[in-house]
Amino acid sequence: MGSFLTVCIHRIPQGKSVVVPRSKCPSCGVQIVWYDNIPVWSFLWLRGQCRMCQQSIPFRYPLIEIVNGLGYLLVVWRFGLAWSTVIYAGLFSVFLVVTWIDWDHQIIPDLITLPGIVVGVLCAGFWLPTGWGNSLMGLLVGGGVLLILAWASPFLFGKEGMGGGDIKFLAMVGAFLGWKAALLALMIASVVGACCGVALLLARVMERGQYIPFGPYLALGSLTAMLWGNEIWTWYFNGLI
Ligand SMILES: [Zn+2]
């Protein structure tokens, strides 16, 4: 799966199929044989180089595979072995792909989020504890809050805030996990994003007004909401009331 994700991350932003053709070395164009295409292992075996042209293979490939594997372990550890765990694992992969694509290209592709919304409602209704009603509420709240923010931010901050991709992404998260999770994801994303932004400004890595992709933060917030949403929600709002 992790290996497939690296293909998705590479090809989806270019509008290419993720199924065909088989993987080639982007440097010399030679098709990669199956025994050189074994996740993580082949990278180590080939010492991070193409067998044909010795061009180095970016470290991100084994990294994505390892992170995805660790993510699945985390999901199984949290939810046990059940059908819903398969869906949560799939969501983890979606979060990983969105993080990477948004980081690279500053977009969250509709090709992921729009089918994701439909699949999310179906999964929530049939297999997840979310349920139909909560899923539709999540879709509306997740999409709606960001839509209002996007509409209002030129007035409030004098510049464009959210991208359309962020809006559809949070709508998808709401469809899978419900409205509380969508709100929680946004809160976590905003807090972590603001802290990182300030830290980057202070460290002078970044300049004021420079664009930071919000997708990685939304994905991190969504992951946290997926894993511990109920606990955080209860803890936070019981403390308030
Ligand atoms: Zn090559």
Describe the structure.
The protein is an all-alpha fold. The chain has two domains: 81 residues, no CATH class; 160 residues. The chain has nine helices and no strands. The chain is globular, with a radius of gyration of 19 Å. The mean pLDDT is 91. The structure holds zinc ion. The site of zinc ion has 8 residues, from loops.
> Helicity level, as a percent range?
55-70%
- Please identify the structural class as seen in this structure: mainly alpha
List SSEs in N-to-C order.
HHHHHHHHH
| % residues in beta strands | under 5%
Task: Using the alpha-carbon principal axes, give the shape.
Answer: globular
Task: Count the DSSP helices.
Answer: 9
Count of structural domains: 2
Average predicted confidence as pLDDT: 91
How many DSSP-defined strands?
0
Uncertain segments of ≥5 residues (pLDDT<50)? Answer: none
Spatial extent as radius of gyration: 19 Å
Provide the list of bound ligands, each named once.
zinc ion
Major β-sheet profile:
none
**Spatial gap, N to C terminus:** 43 Å
